[in-house]
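Re: weekly structure request thread

Next one in the queue (165 aa):
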Amino acid sequence: MAGFLSRLGQPGGTKTYKDRVYGISIEYPKSWKKKDGMREAVVLFMAPRTSPAQVFTANINITVQDLTGQDLTLDEYVHTTIEREKQFIADYELINIEPATMAGHPACQITFAGKHGYTPLRFIQLCTLKNHRAYAITCAAEAKEFPSFMVQARQVIDSLRIEER
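Done, posted below.
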């Protein structure tokens, strides 16, 4: 899968991120910045700014939550996630929830909107449950940049792998 973004005019190809503790790997464009352990996220990937006026940096983050001892269905986990997001994202607006696939596993895709200050944002979050863990990958960008950002973000999402344990 290396170099999959060069078809989109992204020079330099991709890098692979691996986390052995959580058993994940994902490819991301070399031009993006990677930050480990940002807040609740295992890893955060930040796309380059598209203009000096850009207020919010488009990004993808991955979270992994230990669910040992909790008997949650995917639907229950998604509902809990939505309620938590409402507390942290200004003007949270749920747009859509639909079945999806994430790293070859049944998943749920949540599309929602919110604000960063006065800047409208758009989000897509995919969640799956595996090995007594909840895996979530969240893509966020300014609403006006979101469609073009998602062209790259979708390929990053599709490269995610979760190890069998």
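The longest strand covers residues 90-102. Residues 120 and 143 are 6 Å apart (CA to CA).
Next request, please.
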